[in-house]
């Protein structure tokens, strides 16, 4: 089947890419590569990928492509599902014979509900869906395809048996040729990464059991499965050859540093290629490993600190001690490894006092930049079930607002969702509006004109973000 893979037009500035743990509009505009969607596209020869949000494409801009394809696979998420359903209905009006399928964590854990909510969806592919999509595109009889849910001729929803978990990751083709033919690298940027950058996965799964984290609990699992080092090196060499403009690689594995021997061995080979790279990390990487990574091209670690309160870390099954995180941060500062820290407010056990404690912790570990998110109980996660059982959901509150801005959906007996929402702005101001941090940012801006232009743009976006939040609080 002539196949199109689509990240549909959605909220303006909305980052719904695979790398986004929290699909929403951010404080500074950023876009991640649609790696999960591209991986499915890589399985179907001659397919086309359209990533509409970062390329600024509206429905009218892609209508000709939608009309010209037989199979259209849409990557969706809980926040964008309603919007994606509206897109699917418009596609059916434009191309009634098109077969439309949805993929993503939302439909993986709620396949029946998703099909019932949108009659324009012909099927959903659950869990890891690459070989499922390949069989669909090849025209196989749906009754024999593992991992899909669909309506039969009688209109009854059928759930086929699960597909086996893929253990040999080298069986998957690289996403980079799909990037090459379909994406503009200049459209993808993050506030803490060099521009242009490129991201993809060297493996899937995370051995940690954080109760809020979406992908391991819905798609990839808790067993870390990864490509061989030779496979990854071939991809990096392809990037050097085909994307000479790219200044930094971001390996978007949930926690690349979980397997210390592998990441050290990979780093030593990357060092020989002379690339600049970054990755996700837990705040417990031994100094010895950090030294190896830094000596071989590592520039930055994206670290999920989440909270500075030990009880909250226990509540979310983070498997991390605050003192270990402090030592890790100290090691990174001494070795010259930049850290982008992420924090979450409103997790189980949160109080006004723990929010203050986390702010003080953030100042102590002092990442170069940080992101403060609101606890987001996505369907399929332990946190979602916990919130339902305890009656924590605020009434008539979704994960994001009508413009894609994140909302605080959880209420606690002594801490309401409105106060949790307001605490994010206060956290940002008290972290960034310190003389030492302002001096640090100004010093960075003076290193180059490009950095100055970039930080000024981000500064404007950041203040617009704060103003939007203030308007939401008033309304």
Q: Can you walk me through this structure?
A:
The protein is α/β, with parallel strands linked by helices. The protein has two domains: 3-159, Cobalamin-binding domain (Rossmann fold, 3-Layer(aba) Sandwich), CATH 3.40.50; 190-432, Aldolase class I (TIM Barrel, Alpha-Beta Barrel), CATH 3.20.20.70. The chain has helices spanning 35-41, 52-55, 59-68, 81-94, 105-109, 111-117, 130-137, 176-182, 214-220, 229-242, 260-273, 287-294, 310-315, 322-335, 352-365, 382-390, 417-432, 435-445, 449-474; strands spanning 3-7, 48-51, 71-75, 99-103, 123-125, 148-151, 157-159, 197-200, 203-204, 225-226, 248-251, 277-281, 298-306, 338-345, 369-374. It has a seven-stranded mixed sheet, with helices on both faces. Strands 8-11-12-13-14-15 form a six-stranded parallel sheet. Helix 18 (435-445) crosses helix 19 (449-474). It starts with a strand and ends with a helix.
Summarize the structure.
Helix content is 42%, strand content 15%.
């Amino acid at each position: 089947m002539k196949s199109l893979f689509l990240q549909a037009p959605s909220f303006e500035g909305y980052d719904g890419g695979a790398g986004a743990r929290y699909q929403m509009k951010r404080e500074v505009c950023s876009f991640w590569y649609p790696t999960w969607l591209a991986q499915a596209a890589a399985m179907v020869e001659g397919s086309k990928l359209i990533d509409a949000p970062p390329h600024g494409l509206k429905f009218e801009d892609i209508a000709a492509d939608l009309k010209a394809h037989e199979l259209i696979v849409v990557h969706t998420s809980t926040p964008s599902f309603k919007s994606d359903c509206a897109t699917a209905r418009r596609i059916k009006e434009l191309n009634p014979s098109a077969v439309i399928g949805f993929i993503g964590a939302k439909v993986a854990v709620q396949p029946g509900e998703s099909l019932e909510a949108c009659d324009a969806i012909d099927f959903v592919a659950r869990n890891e869906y690459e070989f499922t999509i390949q069989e669909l595109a090849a025209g196989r009889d749906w009754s024999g395809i593992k991992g899909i849910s669909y309506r039969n001729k009688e209109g009854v929803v059928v759930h086929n048996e699960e597909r086996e978990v893929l253990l040999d990751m080298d069986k998957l083709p690289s996403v980079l040729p799909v990037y090459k033919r379909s994406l503009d690298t200049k459209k993808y940027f993050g506030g803490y990464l060099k521009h242009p950058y490129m991201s993809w996965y060297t493996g899937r799964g995370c051995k940690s059991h954080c109760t809020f984290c979406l992908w391991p609990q819905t798609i990839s699992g808790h067993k870390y499965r990864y490509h061989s080092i030779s496979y990854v090196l071939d991809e990096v060499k392809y990037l050097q050859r085909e994307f000479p403009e790219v200044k930094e690689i971001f390996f978007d594995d949930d926690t690349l540093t979980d397997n210390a021997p592998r990441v050290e061995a990979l780093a030593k080979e990357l060092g020989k290629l002379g690339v600049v790279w970054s990755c996700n990390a837990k705040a417990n990487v031994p100094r010895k490993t950090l030294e190896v990574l830094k000596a071989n091209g590592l520039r930055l670690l994206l670290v999920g600190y989440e909270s500075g309160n030990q009880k909250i870390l226990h509540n979310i099954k983070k498997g991390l001690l605050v003192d270990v995180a402090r030592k890790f941060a100290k090691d990174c500062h001494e070795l010259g490894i930049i850290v982008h820290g992420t924090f979450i407010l409103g997790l189980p056990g949160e109080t006004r006092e723990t929010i203050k404690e986390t702010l003080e912790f953030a100042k102590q570990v002092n990442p170069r930049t940080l992101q403060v998110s609101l606890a987001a109980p996505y369907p399929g996660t332990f946190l979602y079930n916990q919130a339902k059982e305890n009656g924590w959901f605020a009434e008539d509150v979704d994960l994001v607002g009508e413009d894609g801005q994140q909302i605080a959906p959880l209420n606690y007996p002594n801490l309401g969702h409105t106060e949790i929402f307001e605490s994010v702005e206060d956290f940002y101001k008290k972290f960034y509006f310190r003389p030492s941090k302002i001096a640090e940012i100004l010093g960075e801006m003076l290193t180059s004109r490009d950095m100055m232009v970039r930080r000024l743009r981000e500064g404007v976006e950041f203040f617009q973000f704060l103003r939007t939040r203030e308007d939401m609080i008033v309304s």
